[in-house]
Amino acid sequence: MESGNDNIDRAEEQLAKVQGPGRIVAELSMAKIDRAIYSNRQLEAVMEDFWFNHFNVFAGKGADRWLLTSYVRDTIRPHTMGKFNDLLTATAKSPAMLFYLDNWLSVDPAAFQAYKQEIAIRRARYQGLFGGFAPLSPGAGFPGAQGGAAQRQEDRGLNENYGREVMELHTVGVDAGYTQQDVIEMARCLTGWTVRAPRRDPDFVFKPEFHAEGKKTVMGHTFNYGGEKDGEEALKMLANDPHTAKFISTEMARHFVSDNPPSALIDRMASTYESSGGDIRGVLKAMIYSPEFWSKEAYRAKVKTPFELVVSTARALDSDVAVSLPLVQWVGRMGEPLFQCQPPTGYSDKASTWVNTGALLNRLNFALAFASGHLAGTTVNLQPMFGDAAARDPERALARSEELFLNGQVDPTTRETLEARLGDPQVLRASLDDPVKQVNEGLLSGLVLGAPEFQRR
Which residues contact 420 (CB under 8 A, 6 or more apart)? Predict the structure, then answer.
């Protein structure tokens, strides 16, 4: 087993090799892991992960690698336990989301044509005043227009990407009965919501010259406030729609209770959502205090995602994580690279995605490496957890492992498999200094942490 200092040195060397934009995502991922392991506000850490996945943004899309840190810190984390409408509006105005789903480029075609005509008039004035000097181009003043990009801006029009996803994935859900025309009208409400300049000045800004003025009708609701308020009121309408109450309640119940949560639970949560005006804390309370949450069917019904497995293993081992980059890498190796989910759907919350032969083998290898002290950046000391009494007694050591990591609740098949390993020379070994066989507590703990029972919440 390597010393703690050697492990930390190795991890720091790995981190030093990560440079450029990848360093931003690596440090953001490490911060997420660290909070999940050490925070005393565990429910907030869980909800941070839940809401980022719900409002997913892909780090690999251009400027988003620079925008994600602010998205997590300023948009997701402050709103994890507040009102859903506040969270929805914050994500809609986030430069990271605006860039990811292209709404920063969405303009009303008629408004943009009028804008280009105005630019042409101003250019003609400059030519007359300064003898042909023309500092303005058709793309001048358009967010993000730089150099050769100005010509590409000439054909900009309405972009429906965010208008579609905010309905299908963020609020009412695909079964809400909206039409393609509703998507178009939603996109029109949000025209002019853009980013000043993604790299140089990545702040939300509303550009009235690109906004579609006039009446817009989304799912039977009419918006004609003019300017930025069209989008704000349209988002508020979506947040308060009964379909959203059910959609969000279903996703939360699926995350916390089971892959197929009971309809009675969803209805109770949705009712709380509607009566509280979308209060996330209230919906969580309704779920936690429900009989379905504490039912036998819900107990250990959820399989841990790779992120949850890594964090729960670190906490179970009471490990000292000095450099969490190797943990971040293991999360990716097991299929869930943080901030790297490309589709706006986010990562799946169902067991079928994470449970297969290859994935289970990866999970076992991770547990063995961690518990045996071979994971860079972490220090594990099992002796205080086991004590001296179990050091030479394999049956006692196994029972202690099951008590520590599985709360003593082990399926007979699992126990039989673990007991069969007690005679393994790697589990029960002797040294030249001490011929009396000692239990390899790290290896035994790794086997228990790799058991099916620990893969479930």
Answer: none
